[in-house]
Amino acid sequence: MGVKVTNNAFGTLSAGISSSATTITLDSGQGAKFPTLSTDDFFFATIIDTSNNLEIVKITARSTDSLTAVRAQDNTSARAFSIGDRIELRPTAALFESLSTPDDATTSSKGIASFSSDNFAVGSGAVTIKDLGVATAEIQANAVTAAKFNADVISGQTELATEPADTDEFLVSDAGVIKRIDYSLIKSASFVGFKAFASANQTISGSTSTQVTFGGELFDVGSNFASNAFVAPSDGKYLFFTQINVGALGSTSADVKFSHTVAGGSTFTGSATRMGPMDTSSRDGKFGLTTVLDMTQNSSVTVFIFLFSGKTLYGDSTGGNSGTFFGGFKIG
After folding, report:
1. What residue numbers bound the domain in which 160 lies?
2. Domain boundary residue among 62, 83, 99?
3. One domain for residues 229 and 210
4. 116 in a domain, yes or no?
5. Is the pLDDT of residue 313 over 90?
6. Which of 43, 170, 245, 293 is buried most deeply by CB count within 10 Å?
7. Contact partners, residue 203, CB within 8 Å, separation at least 6
8. DSSP H or E run through 100
9. Confidence band, pLDDT 50/70/90 cuts, at residue 91
10. Burial class of 80 by CB neighbour count within 10 A (0 to 12, 13 to 18, 19+)
11. What is the Cα–Cα distance from 300 to 330, expressed in whole angstroms?
12. Is 104 a residue whose pLDDT tops 60?
C-alpha cells in the first residue's frame, strides 16, 4: 500500500481530456509500462502538451490502458490536453514526500503519529521512536503473553488508597471475553443495622395504643434510626427484635407489636405478642418479639404497646442496663 514507481514509463493520450476529466486513456499497450496498482496504491504522472504546459496527476487505479486520475497535484493546475499529448512517470516533489512519509504515518488512527523529529531520535546508527510517537499500535492476536506483561504495569501506577467509587471500573473475563464492570456490582453489601434503648421510664396510659419511646442508641450503622422509628434505606428483608420491660404488670395484660408503615401507603401490624396477667401484682413483665419484614425503600417500623391498665415502661440511661430496647438489621 502506497506510492509505486517503474522505470522510464511513458505513453500518449489516445483521446483528448478536459480539465475536469478523471479518466485518461493511453494508446493501446502503453498502460503496461506504468505500475500495477492494488487497493490504496497510487503513482504520480506528468502530462505535457506540445507547448510544454504540464500538469501533475495522481493515478489511483489502472485497468490496462485506462488510468483513473486525481487532477492538479503538486501545485499544478488542471487543464485540457489533446490526443497525442505525452504522459510520463517523472520524479516529482510529491513522489519524494510520499516516500519519506508513508500513508500509515500520516494518520492518527494507526501506526506512527508523524515522521518528525518530535517522534524520532537517531543516534549510533539506530532510530528510536520517542514517547507519544506511536498513535495506535496494531498488535497481532495473542501476541501479548503473560511473560511479556511486566509487573510494573500495575506496581508502577498510582495506588488507590481508599475504597473505589461505585463507577470505578475493573476488567473481568466473561467466558474468555474481556469486559468492564463497575465496582458497585461486585462490592460487598454494606451492613445496615441499629439498636436503640429506652433511656428513661415511660408512663403508658391504660386502654390506649402507645408508641414506645427509645431515647438512646447503642449503634446506628447507616443512620437510619431516628425519632423512635427505623426507615429502610433500600428494598429488602429486615430482621427486627424488641424487648419491653413493664413494671409491676400484675393482673393486667399487654400487647406489643411492630408497626410497619409502607412508604407513601398504609400501616400494618408486622408482628404482635401478648403477655399477662402475672402471678403477683408486683411482678414485672418482659416481652420479647422478633420478626422479619419485607420492606421497600423509605418504609418505616416502630414499636407500639397496648396496656389494659396504666403502667410504667422501665428504661435506663445506661444502654446496656435498659430492659426496653429495639433493634434490627438488613438480611437480604
Report:
1. 155-185
2. 99
3. yes
4. no
5. yes
6. 43
7. 310, 312, 313
8. helix 93-100
9. very high
10. middle
11. 13
12. no
Q: 84 with 59, same domain?
A: yes
Residue 132 lies in a domain: no
Residue 326 grid coordinates: 429495639
User: 236: phi > 0 → left, psi -120 to 50 → alpha, else beta; which?
Assistant: left
Is residue 280 helix, strand or coil?
coil
Q: What CATH number is associated with residue 288? A: 2.60.120.40
Please report which helix (H) or strand (E) contains residue 272, including its range: strand 267-275
Residue ending a domain, among 72, 99, 126, is 99
Q: Are residues 199 and 325 in the same domain?
A: yes
**Stretch among 53-57, 108-112, 286-290 having the lowest mean pLDDT:** 108-112
In the chain, the number of structural domains is: 3
Nearest Cα residue to 196 out of 315, 319, 323, 331? 319
The torsion defined by the Cα of 17, 19, 24 and 27, in degrees rounded to 10, comes to 40
The pLDDT value recorded for residue 288 is 92
Burial 232-242 (b: 16+ CB within 10 A, else e): beeebebebeb
